[in-house]
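Hey L., structure's done. Input below.
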Amino acid sequence: MTQRVLVLGANGFIGRRLVVQLARMSGVAVVAAGRSPIPANLGENVDARVLDAADPNALQNSLIGVTGVVNCIAGSPDNIVAGARALFAAAGRANPAPRIVHLSSLAVYGSLSGAVDETVVPRGDSSAYSSAKLLTEKFAADCKSAVTLRPGIVYGPRSSWWSDRIARLLCARRLGDLGRDGEGLCNLVYVDDVATAAVRALGTPHIEGSIFNLAQPPIPTWHEDFAQYAEMLGALPVKRISRSRLLMEQALFSPALKLLELAAGHGILRQAPPAPPIRPWLLALCRHRIGMVATRAETTLGMQWTPLKEGLRASADWFLAGGRT
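Output:
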């Protein structure tokens, strides 16, 4: 029997890698859906379509004949909430209900620190994104066929922040050794590992209602991550960046760089600035000592993680070959 899997947010960083994995599997037909047109060269068993996932009627029609759904919708907090609300409402009316794999985030833990596994009650108190992701988990909890994945920092080729912008900041020597401000824990997970976890969550029986943290051990500090990535980028020596330098940049340069970045995104400039602004949320993340425990994903989903060196090497090769987002 052919399984028919709907991937929402198929144009995104994670969604695209998931579609590629599913398309290689025998007995699986993929419906790749996004708000903008999906590339047509993803495979013969991929039905690419434009879909507004916040439109309940359009989503209801897309669930007909579907055995599994993976929700990879990204974007603004409002978009994330609207898409999840429509999805779980539509799933509640489907008979039989498809298995739904919902991608949440490390962000739901909010201001919590220390080691956190799936039994820790999340706070969702660190940002609008954090609270939006927590709200979507509440939608998922009310759906009897849902499984929730909580990835940490998802990196790899085509990652907008963690492989592209961080690389530009390191190469420009505007990011590097942050001293004590870089001693937070960097809960990395390679993008293909997230896609693999989603595939296994679709097919593993009797896990409805489960939540899985996704982060590869051992967890490095941000200082260690930046140092390894800079070495692979050829951006050595890693420059010591003081807190006063970072504060000065945020006050004097970040607003202008953000305007240039927005202008480039709207086609006003021919290309983006050579390095993006350093955002306050990034520095807060680099100080945050929270470590995700992913034992449940290893034992139940059989996850084996891509080694950090291998993942950073693939990211650096992509960037050095001209990769940009």
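The domain at 3-158+187-218+290-305 is CATH 3.40.50.720 (Rossmann fold). The mean pLDDT is 92.

-- N.
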